[in-house]
């Protein structure tokens, strides 16, 4: 039982990332009908927003400390971050320590603006083009963005630590009545899972309970009729593209302490996230979320040594095997709608 619970926990944080990326993908496809292969790059850009803010907050100036000497006996040079100088030592160091959560506020306007520019500058020209054209142009954009990140930040992963308050692990074993140190789980992974639930709940609430969201849902069901009512549905769909970009971005921000940001992390998640979308059902938001968590947990169980000893490499292909089985029995996915990508 302890092994099962541990694998479920391990699957939840990766499933959270899958669900958040797939949610954004489905928002874009459901509103604009665009297959956006650059969506993984938005996740990557969000992660590097976290890196960028951490570097900005760590900018420092040098001063001479006469009370300290170097190995030659000369007065030592001390680097002091500007935020420490401006806000005091305790507050300044706390701001640096909490750079990852603060990067959410830093990344949201950047990601929304990037989404608007991307949609108005490129995507809108491919609305009526075949899906193959959309895939090619957005995949090309993803490669360009990947190389830009590589040029500016280098090819190596960049460690981005979580706040010190969330370092270490929580002993789930004691909470559930097991022996001490039986089920140990990192605090930040728990935070990421809770964060993903809040974001997913926020997106669904926005679509379900606001007038803007209800118009968007109506436009997803029948765009032409909504347009005939005098509503500029295109502007609302452009906003949804920006919202989807923001969701992917903040998912990347919070994932940075779990997986050190690198230039190819967008591609690593992109293909798997598209599999999640297809399994959940193209255009189905609940399906994308359900499939994300389900496949994340299955991947976690497949990575167990006892499973890999029977079927070597199963952890690398389990998601694709499950996708094949589901699509053979349910061609539209778990919660897919009739007519989506069936023309």
From TrEMBL:
Localization per Swiss-Prot or TrEMBL: Cell membrane
Annotated keywords: Amino-acid transport, Cell membrane, Membrane, Transmembrane, Transmembrane helix, Transport
Superkingdom of source: Bacteria
Any one Gene Ontology cellular component term annotated for this protein: plasma membrane
GO molecular function, one term: transmembrane transporter activity
Family according to the record: Belongs to the binding-protein-dependent transport system permease family. LivHM subfamily.
CDD domains: TM_PBP1_LivH_like
Membrane topology of this protein: Multi-pass membrane protein
Gene Ontology BP terms: amino acid transport
Alphabetical list of Pfam families matching this protein: BPD_transp_2
Designated name of the protein: Branched-chain amino acid ABC transporter permease
Regions crossing the membrane: 15-35, 42-61, 102-123, 191-216, 236-257, 269-298, 310-328
């Amino acid at each position: 039982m302890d092994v099962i619970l541990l694998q479920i926990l391990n699957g939840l944080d990766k499933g959270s990332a899958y669900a958040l990326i797939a949610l954004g993908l489905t928002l874009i496809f459901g509103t604009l009908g665009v297959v956006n292969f650059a969506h993984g790059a938005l996740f990557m850009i969000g992660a590097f927003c976290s890196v960028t803010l951490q570097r900005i907050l760590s900018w420092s100036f040098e001063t001479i400390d006469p009370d300290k000497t170097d190995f030659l006996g000369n007065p030592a040079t001390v680097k002091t971050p500007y935020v420490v100088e401006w806000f005091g030592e305790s507050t300044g160091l706390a701001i640096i320590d909490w750079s990852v959560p603060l990067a959410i506020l830093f990344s949201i306007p950047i990601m929304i603006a990037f989404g608007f520019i991307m949609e108005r500058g490129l995507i809108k020209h491919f609305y009526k083009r075949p899906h193959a054209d959309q895939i090619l142009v957005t995949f090309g954009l993803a490669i360009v963005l990947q190389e830009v990140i590589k040029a500016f930040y280098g090819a190596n992963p960049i460690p981005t630590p979580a706040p010190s308050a969330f370092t270490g692990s929580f002993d789930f074993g004691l909470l559930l009545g097991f022996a001490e140190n039986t089920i140990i789980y990192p605090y930040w992974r728990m935070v990421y899972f809770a964060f993903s639930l809040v974001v997913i709940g926020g997106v669904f609430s926005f679509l379900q309970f606001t007038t803007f969201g209800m118009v968007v849902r109506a436009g997803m069901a029948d765009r032409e009729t909504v347009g005939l009512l005098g509503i500029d549905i295109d502007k609302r769909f452009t906003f949804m593209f920006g919202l989807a970009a923001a969701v992917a971005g903040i998912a990347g921000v919070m994932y940075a302490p779990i997986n050190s940001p690198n230039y190819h992390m967008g591609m690593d998640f992109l293909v798997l996230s598209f599999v999640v979308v297809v399994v959940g059902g193209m255009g189905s938001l609940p399906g994308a979320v359900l499939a994300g968590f389900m496949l994340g947990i299955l991947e976690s169980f497949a990575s167990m040594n006892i499973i890999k000893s029977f079927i070597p490499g199963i952890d690398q292909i389990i998601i694709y095997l499950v996708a094949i089985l589901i699509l053979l029995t349910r061609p539209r996915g778990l919660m897919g709608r009739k007519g989506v990508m069936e023309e």
